[in-house]
Amino acid sequence: MNMKLALTGKTLLVSLGLGLAIAPYLITEVKGQNQQVTRVKNLTWEVSQSYQPPDRSAPSATAGGASRGGCIESAGVLTSLMPQNNLGLTLTGYPTFFWYVPKSKAEALEFKLLDGENGQVIYKKTLAVPSNSGIVSFRLPNNELSAPLEVGKMYHWFLTMICPPNPNQELPDKSGNVIVDGWVERIQLNPNLVNKLEKAAPSDRPALYAAAGIWHESLTTLVDLLRQKPDDRNLKNQWKKLLDSVGLNVLVEKPMLDCCTSKPN
């Protein structure tokens, strides 16, 4: 009598210090008395396209992920490309941040990075405002910070859209400014993930970062690939799935802008 046994859903746990899993899928078939065939189906694509958040969230959210002010001229709001928990993990001491900036009459964008423990401002930069709506990015410059982000320490960042003052006010009025904020924490790169990244094709690396809960590298590597191949259907699909998984589906079709450069203070 022939017997067929299918074992499905066996998950291989990869210890990343975050309680997360990346899962190949094992199917074992027993054909006849002594014939056993094992097939491995790589489910990295299906599993990893959705961002898997760490088991903790940001300490607080002062401004949240999206806001609209009086000097915004187009549809949409100033939005940070962040997970719902407002905490982005990174592997680098100089991560890249992303925002959707609508067209506005703003005079400047101001980025501030604060020590998460004492609230001290450790870095501040004034950025130029893009002329059109779109997704912009800013990488912490390694030549301007006194030191890279420390491993295991949280930092609180703010992006402020500085709107022109109300001419009817006698004193400067900042109530029209638009602010978004978020948190970033640098973590150690796990050797298991290193091995997977070394073996993976460049187009698969954003998915591996996403499955490990490493937001900044997942987003940055995917954006870099899309800039190189903007018409690649596979990359576009990854972009959609990643943003959908963190509730940012309204930004999927927004253009990526070459921005932002610093302005003289």
Automatic annotation (TrEMBL):
It comes from Floridaenema aerugineum BLCC-F46. It holds the Pfam family DUF928. This is DUF928 domain-containing protein.
